[in-house]
Specification:
This protein has about 100 residues and is mostly beta strands. It is built from one helix and nine strands. The longest helix is centred in the middle third of the chain and has 4 residues.
Length: about 100
C-alpha cells in the first residue's frame, strides 16, 4: 500500500493515487495541476519522514473544480441587554484528484 500525508490548507491529509480530496481554495484553474508538499511517505513497510528524502517525492493532483462549503450560522446573544448579532459564512473549497505519487 502506497500513500502519503501531505500538507495542504493548514491541515494534513492522507492521500493515495486516485483519491479525491477537498481542500481550502487553491489558486489553480479547473483541469490544471497542483503539486502538494509531502510530510510522510509510506511505501509498503518502508516509512519515509526525513526532510531530505521527502524533497525527492512529488505528489501531483488534478483540480476537479472549485466549490463552496455548507452555510455556517454564527449567532451572538447577551442576556438582558438587547444585544443580538447574526452572521453567516461559507468556506471557499477546491476538489482535487491525486494523479501520482513518485
Amino acid at each position: 500500500m502506497v500513500y502519503a500525508v501531505v500538507r495542504a490548507g493548514g491541515r494534513q491529509e492522507k492521500v493515495e493515487v486516485g483519491s479525491i480530496v477537498v481542500l481550502d481554495r487553491l489558486a489553480a484553474e479547473q483541469g490544471g495541476t497542483v503539486e502538494l508538499a509531502p510530510v510522510l511517505f509510506v511505501d509498503g513497510d518502508k516509512i519515509t519522514h526525513d526532510a531530505k528524502a521527502l524533497e525527492k517525492i512529488k505528489v501531483k493532483a488534478e483540480v476537479i473544480g472549485n466549490e463552496r462549503g455548507p452555510k455556517i450560522v454564527i449567532q451572538k446573544y447577551k442576556n438582558k441587554t438587547g444585544y443580538k448579532k447574526r452572521q453567516g459564512h461559507r468556506q471557499e473549497l477546491t476538489r482535487i484528484k491525486i494523479t501520482s505519487i513518485a
